[in-house]
Amino acid sequence: MPTEVSEKTASFTESVIRNMTRRALKLGAVDLAQGFPDFPAPTELKEAAKRAIDEDYNQYAITHGSPNLRRAIAEKVRSYNRIDCDPESNLTVTCGATEAMIASLLAVVNPGDEVIVFEPFYENYGPDTIIAGASRRVVALHGRDFSIDPKELESAFGPHTKAIIINTPHNPTGKVFTLSELEMIAELCRRFDTLAITDEIYEHIIYGSARHVSIASLPGMAERTITISGLSKTYSVTGWRLAYTVACERLTSAIRKIHDFLTVGAPHPLQEAGVTALRMPESFYAELRAMYEHRRMTLFKMLSEAGFGCRLPDGAYYIMADVSHLGFADDVAAADFLLEEVGVASVPGSSFYQHKELGRGLVRFTFSKNDQTLAAGAAKLKQIESKLAKLRR
Ligand SMILES: Cc1ncc(COP(=O)(O)O)c(C=O)c1O
Questions:
Q1: Which pLDDT score, from 0 to 100, does residue 175 have?
Q2: Atom of ligand 1 at shortest distance to CA of 98?
Q3: pLDDT at 18
Q4: According to the model, what pLDDT value does residue 3 have?
Q5: Pocket lining: 214 vs ligand 1, CB cutoff 6 Å
Q6: For residue 49, what pLDDT is reported?
Q7: In this predicted structure, what is the pLDDT of residue 13?
Q8: Does residue 302's CB lie within 6 angstroms of at least one atom of ligand 1?
Q9: Most exposed of 45, 217, 228, 314 (fewest Cβ within 10 Å)?
């Protein structure tokens, strides 16, 4: 049949997260599902983007990134991430961290290679590993603090392990991997001659005493790590589609080949404006953290008041909440009730698990929203009991 789709495509669904946003829009619900800000991007960035268009940066940039942006990223990577980075040979600018991850996997994975992923994991890594032809091995994050069992992790490594995907700060749990956890992972990567692919898109969104550490800065890791970060979350420009990979020259040239044929390049005027983003003063990052700290407490309080069990995240802008007490068959039914009856969009927890049953009692909410949106969400959540009673009548 000419209309038959590939087995790979048939093996995963469209994103549950992004579908929740579409449903929320349609129903006029409060969208606490997808992680994007509903407040304006910084004025300096909008001005810089308009200027770049007026200055006629309107044709293709160099495929692996405009020299101005690569220079700015390299400076930031050296100072913030403590990774040595040559903009000529270690950097590839991509269309979002989304492209950076899939391009990295396509650049390194051969059919049958194993890739280790901590569970729960950001939804995209499921289809990413399938598209790249990798065999996925999941390692559980345990308990309330989402800790790693060293023995379980070690036993996931073997002769076929090509890479381990790390995501810190972590979506959906808010875990920030500690230095000793990263040292343990690094030791295994060196011992089993394995790559680390680390998604650090939330690197600037951390709370309290949590510290962001890039695994590539640990001894012997620079040559075996692909570090991914980007502008979407830090600068509230998820629609600009700007991110990058940092890797040794050999890996970078492989990633650049894949990237070139996937997308040719990220939008040129926005790359030029991205230079302004990367050169924001220290105060910008302090204000960003303070703003999210306030929203983290707001969401935590409103979920706790609604009777949901949850934990304060150490990083990123999500809270996983236990909704099993609502009495629905699973997380999808609970999220449907919250969306359709209560008017608040969340993400069913099972979307973050390979072992779907582990997410059955959970839904994820984001606090990357303005105070009015969070207040509207809080007001709706107060109606849970009456909506449940109506349902049971
Ligand atoms: C862990 C993680 N990686 C990547 C992305 C996507 O980043 P980008 O907008 O740069 O593609 C997200 C967005 O939610 C995310 O949570």
A1: 98
A2: 11
A3: 86
A4: 84
A5: no
A6: 98
A7: 85
A8: no
A9: 217
- Determine the atom of ligand 1 nearest the C-alpha atom of 230: 10
Residue 267 contacts residue 240 (beta carbons within 8 Å)? yes
> Residue 243 CA: which ligand 1 atom is closest?
10
Which of the listed residues 18, 34, 232 should we mutate to test ligand 1's pocket, taking the one with most ligand atoms within 8 A of CB? 232
Q: Is 203 exposed, middle or buried (0-12, 13-18, 19+ CB in 10 A)?
A: buried
Q: Concatenate the DSSP letters of all residues of 179-229 into one string.
A: HHHHHHHHHHHHHTT-EEEEE-TTTT-B-TT-----GGGSTT-GGGEEEEE
Residue 144 confidence (pLDDT):
85
**pLDDT value of position 391:** 82
Check pocket membership of 174 for ligand 1, CB cut-off 6 A.
no
Tokens representing residue 273 in the block: 């404006």
- For ligand 1, atom 14, name the residue with the nearest CA: 35
Ligand 1 within 6 A of CB of 201:
yes
Q: Which of 13, 197, 15, 203 is nearest to 116 (CA)?
A: 197
* Whole-angstrom distance, CA of residue 377 vs CA of residue 371: 10
Q: Is the CB of 167 under 6 A from ligand 1?
A: yes
Q: What pLDDT score does 271 carry?
A: 98
Query: Can you tell me whether residue 92 is helix, strand or coil?
Result: strand
CA of 97 to the centre of ligand 1 (A): 6
Orientation of helix 249-263 relative to helix 96-108, angle to 10°: 120
How many Å apart are CA 245 and CA 265, to the nearest integer? 13
Give pLDDT < 50 ranges for the chain.
Answer: none
Q: How far is the CA of 201 from the centre of ligand 1 (A)?
A: 6
User: Which residue's CA is the nearest one to ligand 1's atom 13?
Assistant: 35
In this prediction, residue 15 carries a pLDDT of 85
Tokens for 317? 């802008």
Q: Is 41 close to ligand 1, i.e. is its CB under 6 Å away?
A: no
Using a 6 Å cutoff on CB, does residue 199 contact ligand 1?
yes
pLDDT (0 to 100) of residue 77: 98
Q: How far is CA 94 from CA 50, 69, 246, 330, 345, in A?
A: 21, 12, 11, 37, 30
Cα of 30 vs its chain's centroid, Å: 21
